[in-house]
Request: fold
Amino acid sequence: MLVVLTHPNDAAARALVDRWQSRGARLMVPRDLSQPGWRHYVGGCGEEWCVTSGERLRADALRGVVTRLPSVRVQDLPHIAAEDREYVAAEMDAFLASWLTRLRCPVLNRPVATSLLGPNRSRERWLLLAASAGLRPAVHHSRAPGRDPAPATAAVTVVGRRWVGAVAPELGVQAVCLAERAGVDLLTVQFDSPDRDAAFVCAELVIDVRSEEVADALLARLDAGVDA
Amino acid sequence: MILLWGAPGDDPLEAVHSELDRRRAEVTLLDQRQVLDQRVELTIGTSMGGSVWSRGRRFAFDEVSALYTRVYDARQMKHVAEAGAEAWVRVQEVESAIWSWADETTARVINRPTAMASNGSKPYQAALIESCGFRIPATLLTTDPDTAAAFWDRHEQVVYKSVSGVRSKVSRLGPQHRTRLADVTWCPTQFQAWVPGRDHRVHVIGNEVFAVEVLSDADDYRYAGQQGATCELRVATLPMDIEARALATATALGLSVAGLDLRRTPDDQWYCFEVNPSPCFTYYEHHTGQPLTAAVASLLAGDHQ
Reply:
């Protein structure tokens, strides 16, 4: 079974799950964490159980997880008393960070304590990492407040070592190189043009999963049974 | 220049500031309370540099040799909370820019934000602690009342605590909690087998290790006063292997200053419950006289290089 962890109104994730119906794909949303059935053990052992699309199942039945949820938002928890939503959102985040980290199946991307999408960075830190990876940064200055909007015109989607995007192949290779440096499987890399001499603008850990090519690349990565 | 980033009135920050002043070190406070009047410029090349301006005064990041952060959630500051949503966006941009520099600078940083992050999820951090050789308590996180009850029955004495860093207080389950176990269906709740023994707070500061033994009858000695319990702190000496393990754990987590919560069981097993990446060490210094502030100041000043 494949699981896509996301917000309840993520239409692209729903389409991905529909596309993977033959693989038993399901959505997991924050509401699932308010269902009886979760069991997660640390410092000992026991059967791990989870709840996805309202149904309880053993965690070892999972063959892969795609995360599209940076964190649980207060607005995802209308079933929780208003005064407790912020606290519950923080608790669910912290829980998911541990649970996803210890899953034995591939998790794209494997989370860190502060981001369920993986090791997130500010735009400035992406620029620095990109420069160290040999990409040409589009800007060398940043100010706060009043940061200039990123002038991106071309995007590359990285899935493992594959890339998808209407750009020069050199940019695809650069994007994959940046993802490897960042230690992530999934990455959207923005450039200021689709041409081979384009400059790097920014990167983010959420990818566009609407195309068949990306969905197939994701499936291949999950089937490979490994993640970054 | 040693840069201190935080708010006046914070005990560890003020203690370190005073100690560095006493040593005549070049030290500057970047006052977090003035965040609404601060701005940042970052330069990105082979490294990250730039400056922060606070009420017209400029601090050049390239001149900073060490940074000590004691930064609070700015929303807890009344004037920030009352400044409105637009101001809050500004605050987030400014603080994010400073944190970005703190993560990338080659200056000594106590502590880098990516290193401190593991404390945001207790079970996530516990797994890291376990990989460093400390024992951690048997822990269950569940939304299942029956599973929680079975865990309680198996371990007989069980505590519950928050999963995140919010409302972080340890309480032992008692008869009054039996009926409330049904509430766990709303959110995964963390239960831990209670570990008997004596608490130790261990501060790792650079390569130095300072241990304090805690004599208390409270479930969470930090709240002993509120629980009508007693609490006494006294200087302790750790076995050499435990001292080395504490140092290795802080190093593995990327923390040059850390507060480890350990417990030594009657059969001489050592458990580690948590590693605090921004410890309020002055509380322990006041009770024991350990030179913790001086050690942090020395680390910032580069005395041990």
Q: What stands out?
A: Chain B has a mean pLDDT of 94. Chain B has nine helices and 16 strands.
